[in-house]
Amino acid sequence: MKEFNKYIGLDVHKETIAVSVADTQDSEVRYLGEITNTPQAINKLVKQIKKGDASLSFCYEAGPCGYGIHRQLTNLGWDCQVVAPSLIPKKAGDRVKTDRRDSLMLARLHRVGELTAVWVPDSAQEALRDLTRAREDMKHLQRQSKQRLLAFLLRYGKSNWTQTHYRWMEGVKFDHPVQQIVFQEYIDMVKAMSKRVEALDTQIASTTAESVFWPVIEGLMALRGVNLLTATTIVAEIGDLRRFASAPQLMAYLGVVPSEHSSVDRTLQRRYQVARWHHQDRQRTCAPGAGGGIKFLKCFCITTFRQRTCAPGAGGGGLDLSPSGAENRRITTACRAYRVFIAVVCGGGFVFLTVPPVPHGIKKHLGKMR
Predict the structure, then answer these.
(1) Disulfide check for 309: which of 101, 120, 319, 346 has CB 3.0–4.6 Å away?
(2) DSSP per residue over 107-118, as a string?
(3) Which residue has the higher pLDDT, 44 or 3?
C-alpha cells in the first residue's frame, strides 16, 4: 500500500468545496477554507498544497456532483477516493453538521483508513448508465401519464382501457367540448411518452451492440428470463462483476442480505425460532378468524412433527432442525405442501373431511411421526 504524507478531505457542493488537510499521524487536522467548484480552482489548490516531494491523497463523498473531480485529480497523477456516505463512521451524539466539520472529519478518517471507497466507473460505463437511467425516467413519466388518463376517465364513469385501448378510446365521447380537449391532451401525452420509451429502447440496442460490454451483456442474456434491457442495466449499474470475490459480497452490494440484531445464545435463539414457528402455524391455520379450520389437518401434521422432533425427551428420534438436516427439510416441505380440504357443514353440526390420496413419499415421512 502506498504511503501518503498529506490527506485532503473535500466536502463537495455545487458551488463550493470545503478543504481540510491532515499531514501526519500526530499533527492536528487543518482547515484551509473554501474554494469554488471549478477545474481551475482545483488545479490551484493542488499547487498550493504540494510542497517539495509531498504525496497527496484526496477523498470526497459520493453525491450528485459525479466523478468529475476524481477524474481530474487522477489525471494529474494524484490518488483520489470517492467515499460511500452511508459507511462513514459517525458519533451517535454528534448533532452539528457543517461544511467545515465534514471536511475535517473526512481528512481525519482518511488518514487512519476508516473510509470505504466506492467503485468509480469510466466514462463509457457512466454513459451507458445514463442511457439506462434516462429510459427508466421516461418509463416513469409514461406510467404517470397513463395514471392521469385513467383518473380522468374514472371521474366520468368511463371504463378502464384494455389491450386494445387505443382503438377503444377513439370512440369515447364527452358531453362538453372542453372535456374532449382535455381527454385528447392526455392521450397525446401517453403516446408521446410511449414513443420516447421506444426510441430509448432502440438506442440502447444499438449502443450495446457496439460497446465493449457486449460480450458480458450477451452472456447475461443467455440466462433464462434476462432480456437486453435487464442485462444492460445490470452491467451499467454494477459494473465489473470481477470486483466481487464471492456471491455474498454481490448480494450485500445489492442490498438483499437480511439484517440481524441478536446477542443471545445460538441454542436459545434456535429454540425461540422453533417456538415462534409453532405458534404462528397454529394462529394462521387453526384460528377461527383465519378460516375456521380450513387447514386444520395441515396444522396438525406440522404441529405433530415439531412436537415429536423438537421437544426434549419426546422420544421422537431427536431429529435436528438445523439447515443442515436434509431429511428434516424434506419432511417440513412435505407437510407444508400437502393440502387437506375440509368442508364444514354448520347447520347440522357435522364436519365432513375430504382428504385426497397421500403421495407415497409424503406418507413414508408422515408414518415416521406416528
Answers:
(1) 319
(2) HHHHHHT---BP
(3) 44
C-alpha cell of residue 363: 406418507
β-pairing, 6-12 with 16-22?
antiparallel
Residue 39 has pLDDT above 70, yes or no: yes
For the chain, give the number of residues. 370
**What grid cell was written down for 319?**
431429529
Amino acid code (one letter) for 54: A
pTM for the model stands at 0.62
Domain segments of the chain: what residues?
6-112, 123-254, 266-368
∠ CA 253-256-261, nearest 5°, is: 100
Find all residues with CB under 8 Å of 184, minimum gap 6, and list them.
none
Taking the C-alpha atoms of residue 78 and residue 72, their distance in angstroms, rounded to an integer, is 9
| Best CA proximity match to 45, nearest among 37, 53, 60 | 37
Q: Residue 60: what are its φ and ψ, rounded to 5°?
A: -155, 160
CA 288 to chain centre: 38
6-112: which CATH architecture? 2-Layer Sandwich (3.30)
Burial of 9 (0-12, 13-18, 19+ CB in 10 A): buried
pLDDT digits (tens, 9 = 90+) for 175-232: 888 888 888 888 889 889 989 999 999 999 999 999 889 999 999 999 888 999 999 9
If you search the block for the grid coordinates 466507473, which residue do you land on?
Answer: 121
CA neighbor of 31 nearest in space, from 11, 16, 14: 11
Percent above pLDDT 90 for the chain = 36
